Amino acid sequence: xxxxxxxxxxxxxxxxxxxxxxxxxxxxxxxxxxxTHVGCDTSQCGACTVLLDGAAVKSCTVLAVQxxxxxxxxxxxxxxxxxxxxxxxxFIQCHGLQCGFCTPGMIMAVAYFLRERxxxxxxxxxxxxxxxxxxxCTGYVNIIAAVRHAALAxxxxxxxxxxxxxx
Length: 167
Ligand code: FES
Ligand code: FES
Prior knowledge:
The protein folds into two domains: about 1-75, Beta-grasp domain (Ubiquitin-like (UB roll)), CATH 3.10.20; about 85-160, [2Fe-2S]-binding domain (DNA polymerase, domain 1, Orthogonal Bundle), CATH 1.10.150.120. It is about 30% helix and about 15% strand. The chain is built from six helices and five strands. Strands 2-1-5-3-4 form a five-stranded mixed sheet. A hairpin with a 2-residue loop joins strand 3 and strand 4.
């Protein structure tokens, strides 16, 4: 067993865990943060995406002990109090989901993509940003619209690069 200490959504967490415990299982089973989903367990679907020290990671590929000393943000920690993150707002506004299973991971991946101003908002750039996240039911059209919507909310000066943007 190994002692770990980390921040999760701004809260200090300390646990004694098995070295093989995955970060996603720490979040879901130990901490009850079930917004982080498990879709494949083989590093393909991205449903388990969280931020670790600001970088998007697939938490099914990270050991809890590897996250020790770090700061994790899950979808539960993305909003600022009652105010949703612009990416969360955009997914609602553009209906960027159907069953919602992939949505937490999508949102975290997009939040990471938009942490800095992207060079462009054309469809290809957005598709590249989402290549690690799989959605089995929306067809991606509204997800791409949501990414563009969130990006323009955060970086309105990008409107000129947003070919395909909806009026
Ligand atoms: S559950 Fe982690 S990538 Fe699918
Ligand atoms: S909304 Fe169903 S898997 Fe993406």
